[in-house]
Each structure stands twice: as C-alpha cells, then as structure tokens.
Write a structure and sequence with these properties.
Elements (H helix, E strand, L loop, with lengths): L1 H20 L5 E6 L6 E9 L5 E8 L22 E9 L2 E3 L1 E5 L4 E11 L4 E8 L2 E9 L2
Antiparallel strand pairs: 1-2, 1-9, 2-3, 3-4, 4-5, 4-6, 6-7, 7-8, 8-9
Length: 142
C-alpha cells in the first residue's frame, strides 16, 4: 500500500513540475524575424548568478555566423553566445526592468516586460527605446 501511495505522490509531483514549467519563461525559445516570421535563433532564458533572469543565443538559425555589423563587445564575435537579455527582475508574475540587445539591428533597449502567453507556448518580450516600445513573440523550442 505504501508503494502505491508513494508512486501516486511522485506522479503528482512530476505533473505539477511540468505544469509549472509552462508558466515559467525559463527554457529555450525560437526568436522570429520581425518581417518574415522565420526562426532566427534559439535563445535560452536562464537565471543568472545574481538572481536576475537573462537570455543568450545558444543556436543560430538564420543570422550571420559572426556579428560583423555589431559595435562594441560583440563586433566580429560569434552570434552563438551573445547575451540578449539581462538584469530582469520579477514583479507580480512579469519579468522586466532589465536591458536587451538585438544583434540583427545592433541595438540596445530597455526591457519593459517578459511574460509567458498562450498557455506557455509563447513568450512576449516588450522592449523600449525612449518612449517607443515594441513587442516580439518567441515560440517555445523545448
């Protein structure tokens, strides 16, 4: 009888962990080209050592192999490994308040919000430059 109860508890914990992951932005996401909608990168959202959330490119699907058009620290560096979001803090279930970098346009921006939508299948990233804000939708890769 104890084995049955233990098996039931383990199954419910595994199910709860899976369900919880659908609401978390952590994991791998496909970023999409603004104009064509084609996948550009696989970007991993992770917890940084300082307790903030960040993201980096882990697979290149459509960008140049190196960031030849980038300025600053990423100029001429491989696209894979570029940190695209950093310093994000959670407030009421939404992450934001950090910084972002879009290598395809060599632009930095303030991250207004990062939130999971569509039942965990998509991630909405909203960034702002001055008073102008844009949102991009990423699709869960794994």
């Amino acid at each position: 009888m104890r084995k049955i109860i233990l098996a039931g508890l383990l199954a419910s914990v595994a199910f709860a962990a899976t369900a919880q992951n659908n609401t978390s932005p952590l994991g791998k996401w496909k970023t999409l080209d603004d104009k064509t909608g084609k996948p550009m990168t696989v970007t991993e959202v992770y917890m940084a050592k300082n307790g903030t959330m960040a993201a980096r490119i882990v697979e290149n699907l459509g960008l140049p192999a190196t960031c030849a058009d980038c300025s600053g620290e990423y100029k001429g560096k491989p696209t894979v490994g570029i940190v695209t979001l950093w310093g994000l803090k959670e407030k009421n279930g939404v992450w934001g308040g950090g910084e972002g970098f879009k290598p395809s346009e060599d632009t930095k921006f303030k991250v207004k919000s990062v939130k999971v939508i569509d039942g965990g299948k998509k991630l909405e990233v909203t960034g702002c430059k001055s008073i102008f804000c844009r949102s991009a939708t990423w699709v869960r890769a794994s």
